[in-house]
Amino acid sequence: MRHFLPKTIKAQLASVAVLILLSVVVFAATFYTSFSQLDKLDQASMDILKSQTSVLMLRRHEKDFMARNDVKYKDKFENEFNTLSGRLSSASAVLASLNMEKQSDVQAMLNKLEKYKYDFEVLVEQRLTVGVSHDKGLQGVAREASHRIEREIQRIKDDSIYKQLLMLRRHEKDFLLRSDEKYVDAFNQPLAV
């Protein structure tokens, strides 16, 4: 074992200094790598924390759309969703690069958010089909047809038919305001006779 060590004290001291210097370099590289990974994890953690706020904003835009029937909230929803999706994808990539076990949880969250976005888009399409105001969509078509029928009945001047029309319109409006099936039955009852 003695044959690996240098024979002079000066050479032995130089080899010890080289070993110490090499150890410091290895320690510095390990330290740098660890802090680099820690910085990446910190960024991923911040992205995940910010995503909680973004999810709440998605819900807010959904509720605003449902309450106000305004398409601008759909656009706000999509912008927030894209930001959130980018954050979570970035966090997922960082966790995957570091072989972290929670990466699958972030991916599962992304999948659930995609489903949520799809459901919201279906809701928006249904609302747009029905009509977001009295003159749009199916509501607008029904309203125009009602007005056309009313003009025709007024033109022929038959009060009994006009009275029946007004009752039908009343049941129609009650249903639109209250969404109660009894108004559909009341609407269809005179037609069954």
UniProtKB/TrEMBL annotation:
It comes from the Bacteria. This is Chemotaxis methyl-accepting receptor HlyB-like 4HB MCP domain-containing protein. It comes from Enterovibrio coralii.
